[in-house]
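Why does residue order matter? Because the sequence determines the fold. Keep that principle in mind as you read this record.
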Amino acid sequence: MNTSNPFISGTTSQRRVTFARPFILPGMDMPHGPGTFELRETREPLDVMHEAYRITRTILLVDGGKTEALEVTADALEFALALDAASMIA
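Structure:
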């Protein structure tokens, strides 16, 4: 789903990510329980000859009694997801 926001240039896409085990991301005080979470990425178009975008913000929405929006880097999120997947193998 792409949505326009007058306060943010570019587009926002949404997808869901699933953690099978408790996880922690930078900025979190304590691990969060497993589950499926909404991820929103804001992209800006690059000024090049072909269609290309740069991700400018990644937000993970978590619900632990209240909904929180955690800004996270794509690298930190991918690392946490890789750790989660590796823990399922072991």
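The two ends are 35 Å apart (CA to CA).
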